[in-house]
Design goal:
about 65% helix; mainly alpha
Length: about 325
């Protein structure tokens, strides 16, 4: 009995071109390291900021929170920061582009997963096999964000229940310790710490409540980045869950006799392998009917000799110029 080997999908490897195209992740890492190192050196050496304050400000720039509570730049510093932030926007745009590419690849993986699930169902005589709940990624995101918020709230509600701060934000005549409250120190309770966490992680950053102590800004710098990433991941998972639900109903509406008859152009009551390919692309929402018709028209226009076949040279002459 002959066995048919499953061919591995061909994935083109980029071996030529600029460095940033061949090594996008390494490029992003080097750009971010250079960006952060430059900013840290500027805040410490030029503005005289303490290292923890410099890290705190960089965390605000990266996450776009912008409390605006720990820096009062000079005229020259404003010029530098104008260029620095615009340069940062370009760097993060490049990173975002790679993230979007990853999201597109995730969509392709989702199609592979769907097709694998259909094949698996055939193995189970049409019964749907058990898979992990589709809500697990969302639940994991909620737990991670909840844990980050909990740590943030507990730390700032206790460690920074009252602080006189330091540097440019220090309260005049304030005395740290038991007399902090009566001498006008910054006060934070559980309610305000929770408010600060949500406003911070959602990158709103009003700036009315922000970390004030040295340790608070060090801890806050780390949890700003981790919290914003966790919040973004939760929003992403929620989006995918809603999108998957919509796609389910869209696919259901496409799995109809009308769609089948549209693909079965010869009206034979069955479809061939090429027609099945068109049907699956249409059903999965990868193309629409108009796109299929335009592809057919394009084939006819490229096929100048009308032999029903296209060579690579014919395709290259039209599509790869």
């Amino acid at each position: 009995m002959e066995t048919t080997e499953m061919k591995q999908p061909f994935i083109p490897v980029i071996s030529v071109g600029p460095f940033y195209v061949r090594f996008p992740r390494l490029t992003n890492l080097l750009l971010l390291l250079g960006f952060l190192t430059t900013g840290f050196a500027f805040f410490v050496l030029q503005e005289g900021a303490q290292p923890e304050t410099a890290v705190y400000m960089l965390a605000q720039i990266i996450t776009t929170i912008g409390y605006g509570d720990a820096v009062h730049p000079s005229y020259n510093a404003q010029t530098f920061l104008t260029v620095y932030v615009l340069l940062g926007a370009l760097i993060f745009t490049n990173v975002a582009t790679d993230v979007f590419d990853a999201a597109i690849r995730r969509t392709e993986i989702r199609l592979d997963t769907t097709l694998a699930a259909l094949r698996e169902r055939l193995r189970f005589d049409g019964k749907k096999p058990k898979y992990p709940s589709k809500y697990l990624p969302l639940l994991s995101s909620v737990i991670i964000l909840g844990l980050v918020i909990f740590i943030w709230v507990m730390f700032f509600a206790h460690y920074e229940s009252c602080t006189c701060s330091y540097g440019s934000t220090r309260v005049a005549n304030c005395i740290d310790g038991p007399q902090c409250k009566v001498t006008g120190g910054y006060q934070t309770d559980i309610h305000s710490a929770l408010y600060m966490a949500v406003i911070t992680f959602s990158t709103v950053g009003f700036g009315d409540i922000a970390p004030k102590s040295k340790l608070g800004r060090c801890v806050g710098s780390f949890f700003m980045i981790f919290g914003v990433a966790s919040f973004g991941h939760l929003v992403s998972e929620l989006f995918h869950l809603i999108d998957d639900n919509k796609n389910y109903h869209r696919k259901k509406s496409r799995c109809t006799r009308e769609v089948f008859n549209l693909i079965d152009e010869n009206e034979t009551g069955w479809i061939s392998r090429p027609e099945f390919l068109r049907y699956m692309l249409l059903r999965q929402g990868k193309v629409n009917v108009d796109a299929l018709r335009q592809i057919d028209q394009l084939f006819d226009e490229i096929d100048a000799n009308r032999n029903g076949r296209l060579s690579f040279e014919e395709i290259e002459g039209v599509m790869l110029d």
